[in-house]
Amino acid sequence: MPKVLAGMKALGAGAPDAVSRGLYAWGEQTRTAAIRKTPKDTGTLRNSIFVQRGNRAISIVAGGPSAPYAVTVHENLSHKIKWRTPGTGPKYIENPIRERRPQLEKDIDREIQQELRKHFGGMR
């Protein structure tokens, strides 16, 4: 985190855009991991997963009109269900978020470093 904060300070007003790009990149990679863990019957649930940008945050969202059962599947911890695809099951979004959390800082720092190089060349 110290590298991220130092980079943000050096960039000043450009820091929020770099952080946003890093956060979004992390979200997209996490979305890909979530899709692999999402139960697949018809593929509709997997296809409903997307990254939504907020003002200062992102959300990884599933469901909507095409898959209104997304929350039910995500929260169903019943051991009676036999998931057809190995490695899939409940908490298909929550688990990848937890697993990829350590990568978040690195993805944000990478975008900050790229922005610094764009503005300051190799100098820091």
Shape: elongated
> How far apart are the termini?
17 Å
Mean pLDDT: 86
User: What strand order characterises the main sheet?
Assistant: 1-2
Low-confidence stretches: none
Largest sheet: 2 strands, antiparallel
Number of helical stretches of at least 4 residues: 5
Strand content: 5-15%
How many DSSP E strands? Answer: 2
What is the chain-wise order of helices and strands?
A: HHHEEHH
State the share of residues found in helices, binned by percent.
Answer: 55-70%
Whole-number radius of gyration? 18 Å
| Secondary-structure class | mainly alpha
**What count of domains describes the coordinates?**
1
Give a structural overview.
The protein is mainly alpha-helical. It has one domain (2-120). It has helices at 2-11, 15-37, 44-47, 70-75, 94-120, and strands spanning 50-53, 58-61. A two-stranded antiparallel ribbon has the order 1-2. Helix 1 (2-11) packs across helix 5. The mean pLDDT is 86.
Question: How would the blueprint of this fold be written?
Answer:
Layout: H1 2-11, H2 15-37, H3 44-47, E1 50-53, E2 58-61, H4 70-75, H5 94-120
Antiparallel strand pairs: 1-2
Helix pairs in contact: 1-2, 1-5, 2-5
Question: Which characteristics define this entry?
Answer:
elongated, mainly alpha, 124 residues, 2 strands, 5 helices
Provide a short characterization of the protein structure.
The chain is mainly alpha-helical and 124 residues long. It has five helices and two strands. It has a two-stranded antiparallel ribbon.
